[in-house]
From TrEMBL:
Residues 29-48 bind DNA. This is TetR/AcrR family transcriptional regulator. GO terms for molecular function: DNA binding. InterPro entries: DNA-bd_HTH_TetR-type_CS, Homeodomain-like_sf, HTH_TetR, Tet_transcr_reg_TetR-rel_C_sf, TetR_C. It comes from Dyella telluris.
């Protein structure tokens, strides 16, 4: 029988997430990962594969815990128009609450993704589509109920909200100013048109 691992995979992934999130994929070395996790490079390779495989594992784990959880929770708790508002306001709070100014790991990965790494580009693109589809779903349902202006093209609005969200997350890395970040939410909400009954 082989020896049992002397480390927790979840703990190692938590450490790897912190490094990749703060430094980015390119600037994080295998040596950084093994040193911070307190394991040998050989043990790390056996458990997680190479650096790129580990990064993709960490990114998918991060997205499941943050983006996917947030969309599912907010849609379950709010009607469509209020779901958009709640999502944007929560993202503003998250952005301002990031004391290390790490930004969003998805957005950071989008900036690093190059044509040489088509798999990473597609993963990031698919997650961006997931956000856009969330907005579109809420917009269409809100228009059907009369809570959102029916004269506005929902696909255009969904893409505009996606762009506002991405801009918010980038700005939070370099200008984490309350007035700036929260100031993006109000104009976005006015794009919805009809005032919510709540």
């Amino acid at each position: 029988m082989g020896r049992h691992k002397q480390f927790s995979e979840d703990d190692v992934l938590d450490i790897a997430e912190g490094l990749f999130w703060a430094k980015g994929y390119g600037a994080t070395s295998t040596r950084d990962l093994s040193r911070e996790a307190g394991i040998t490079a050989t043990s790390m390779y056996h458990a997680f594969g190479d650096k790129r495989t580990m990064f993709l594992t960490v990114l998918n784990r991060y997205l499941a815990r943050t983006l996917h959880e947030r969309i599912t929770r907010i849609e379950a708790r709010h009607p469509p128009r209020e779901a958009i508002v709640a999502f944007l306001k929560e993202m503003a709070r998250v952005s301002l609450g990031d004391a290390e100014h790490r930004g969003c790991m998805l957005v950071n990965s989008a900036i690093e993704a190059t044509a040489e790494d088509a798999d990473l580009q597609e993963l990031v693109a698919e997650e961006m589509r997931l956000i856009e589809t969330f907005f579109l779903r809420c917009l269409q349902a809100g228009q059907a109920s009369g809570a959102i202006d029916r004269t506005k093209e929902p696909k255009d609005l969904a893409r505009a909200f996606l762009a506002i969200l991405m801009g918010m997350r980038v700005l939070a890395r370099v200008r984490p100013e309350k007035g700036l970040i929260e100031g993006l939410v109000g104009p976005a909400i006015t794009m919805l048109g009809t005032t919510s009954p709540n």
